[in-house]
């Protein structure tokens, strides 16, 4: 067996081992990167979904029957998992940039897999309970897209250092071509992405309409228990121009305010009427309803994390609250010269007031002394009976259908209405109210879209938004967009040229030469093998006319010269 055959066999074995190791490390890097992007999307979703945390907890309550804030463990686990995966990914990128393998410890591999599986299970659970909420991603892009575009360009530009270092190597492979092609496509897509953006706040300042009217949805439920006199009072004090309430008819014909079908969540019915806690709220008479406490649950569950900020006086008042009747809320609105939006739940056919609920409600409006022009009635199913009152629909209808029904306003969830829909309604003199709007970013989008009014659980927050969070003219944004694209492309090209120059200089060095310079100067089998590799490497590559390789005889090495081989 010749020395060259030994060297060739040994090199093949080493390459196979390196290739196998690299494949596994490449797989783990893909898993780590996938976990990062999945968690990034998950974290972004919960960031923008803060607008609807109350609705999420309410849905969980309807599924489980127990009221608890499920957003706390979700936010905690998301923060921990995202921080952990981001830290590992940064370390991995540093390793790769230095030409080293990833070499994750087994405990980190377990941690990455556990984080990935937990996130996937979270996606499945949210899709089951709260599947409609995914649409908030598209809505939020109307606000965040310009900033995500800049962030994406910065990230892709930074990654070009690693991509360039990989694809400009002397060796060429199909995988390198694929990596380069994917990178160019991603960069090109990012550069052209603004062509697809629909951002209402990219507009001229002089066409910005007045801010939307703020409607206190169930009052100000972050400051006091929902649908109570104190909640409606707080809403008016914090700038709400109108009030919205959920109306139910009691068994003896008294309209009162409650969101749920039962009294379990917002009263102490389980203590006062333990055998009836699962019964419909409309099955109680007003005397029974008025005897229930409607404030203790708020102090105990703290649904909006605001109880600690309340004064001792406010806590005492909340602890003694009772369910609010419709006439109390209407009188409060009349004194404040405020309008109201009533979401009326019609009794079931077997309810004693099924045939008279309309007259019960109408009589209450007259008793409260509020002007009928100040009252908007929903839904619009009793158009023939509701005369003199404004009516709104909770359905997304065409303009022709709205005209046919004889109504002049729509009240829609923000997920059900687009910018084009808003413009179409407004162009046909149809008033639009959008709910729920609790975050400044969503309020800003709707303001720029020209929405006349929004219904909010947080009027005290929206009152502090005197102007859209950001507003930019088309010319200014086009300048930022094109400039950032050009700078990114220029930097990427510079990085590719620099990496090619750097690596081309390094390719003149033989790996065995570099290793020999670092080994201890003493004979060993490994050193001898390395010498033989160097000899045949130089013979295969050929020495120039002026090249000379000297390996010192006194150290057991051989000497090359231009004339031949000497030992």
TrEMBL record:
Q: Where are the transmembrane segments?
A: 26-47, 72-94, 106-126, 146-168, 175-197, 479-498
The domain of life for this entry's organism is Eukaryota
Q: What is this protein called?
A: GP-PDE domain-containing protein
Instruction: Give the membrane topology, semicolon-separated if more than one.
Output: Multi-pass membrane protein
Keyword Cell membrane among record annotations: no
> What are the residue boundaries of the GP-PDE domain, all occurrences included?
212-466
Instruction: Tell me the compartments it is located in.
Output: Membrane
């Amino acid at each position: 067996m010749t020395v060259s055959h030994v060297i060739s066999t040994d090199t093949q074995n080493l390459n196979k081992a390196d290739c196998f190791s690299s494949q596994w490390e490449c797989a783990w890097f893909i898993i780590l990167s996938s976990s990062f992007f999945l968690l990034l999307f998950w974290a972004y979703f919960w960031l923008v979904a803060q607008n609807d945390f109350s609705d999420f907890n309410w849905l969980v309550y309807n599924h489980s029957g127990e009221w608890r804030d499920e957003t706390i463990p979700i936010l905690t686990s998301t923060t921990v998992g995202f921080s952990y995966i981001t830290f590992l990914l940064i370390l991995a990128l540093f390793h790769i940039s230095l030409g080293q393998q990833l070499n994750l410890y087994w405990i980190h591999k377990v941690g990455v897999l556990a984080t990935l599986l937990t996130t996937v299970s979270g996606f499945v659970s949210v899709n089951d309970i709260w599947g409609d909420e995914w649409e908030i991603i598209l809505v939020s892009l109307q606000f965040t897209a310009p900033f995500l575009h800049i962030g994406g360009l910065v990230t892709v530009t930074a990654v070009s250092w690693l991509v360039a270092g990989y694809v400009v190597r002397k060796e060429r492979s199909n995988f390198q071509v694929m990596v380069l092609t994917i990178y160019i496509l991603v960069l090109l897509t990012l550069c052209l992405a603004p062509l697809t953006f629909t951002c209402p706040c990219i507009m001229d300042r002089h066409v910005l309409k007045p801010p939307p009217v703020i409607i206190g949805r169930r009052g100000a439920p972050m400051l006091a228990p929902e649908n109570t006199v104190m909640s409606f009072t707080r809403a008016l004090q914090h700038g709400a121009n109108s009030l919205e309430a959920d109306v139910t008819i009691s068994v003896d014909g008294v309209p009162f305010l409650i969101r749920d079908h039962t009294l379990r969540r917002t009263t102490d019915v389980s203590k006062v009427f333990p055998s009836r806690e699962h019964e419909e709220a409309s099955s109680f008479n007003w005397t029974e309803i008025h005897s229930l406490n409607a404030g203790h649950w708020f102090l105990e569950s703290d649904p909006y994390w605001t109880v600690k900020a309340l004064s001792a006086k406010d806590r005492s008042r909340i602890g003694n609250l009772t369910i609010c009747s419709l006439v109390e809320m209407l009188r409060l609105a009349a004194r404040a010269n405020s309008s109201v939006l009533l979401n009326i739940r019609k009794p079931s056919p077997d309810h004693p007031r099924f045939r008279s609920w309309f007259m019960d409600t109408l009589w209450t409006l007259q008793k409260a002394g509020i002007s009928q022009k100040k009252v908007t009635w929903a839904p619009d199913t009793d158009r023939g009976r509701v005369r003199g009152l404004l009516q709104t629909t909770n359905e997304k209808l065409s303009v022709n259908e709205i005209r046919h029904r004889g109504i002049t306003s729509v009240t829609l969830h923000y997920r059900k209405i687009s910018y084009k829909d808003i413009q179409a309604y407004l162009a046909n003199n149809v008033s639009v109210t959008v709910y729920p709007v609790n975050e400044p970013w969503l309020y800003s989008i709707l303001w720029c879209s020209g929405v006349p009014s929004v219904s909010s659980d947080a009027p005290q927050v929206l009152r502090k938004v005197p102007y859209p969070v950001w507003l930019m003219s088309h010319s200014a944004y086009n300048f930022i967009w094109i400039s950032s694209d050009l700078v990114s492309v220029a930097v990427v090209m510079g990085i590719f040229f620099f990496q090619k120059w750097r690596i081309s200089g390094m390719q003149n060095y033989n790996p065995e030469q570099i290793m020999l310079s670092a080994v201890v100067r003493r004979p060993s089998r490994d050193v001898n093998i390395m010498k033989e590799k160097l000899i045949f490497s130089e013979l295969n590559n050929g020495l120039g006319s002026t090249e000379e390789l000297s390996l010192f005889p006194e150290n057991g090495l051989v000497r090359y010269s231009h004339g031949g081989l000497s030992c």
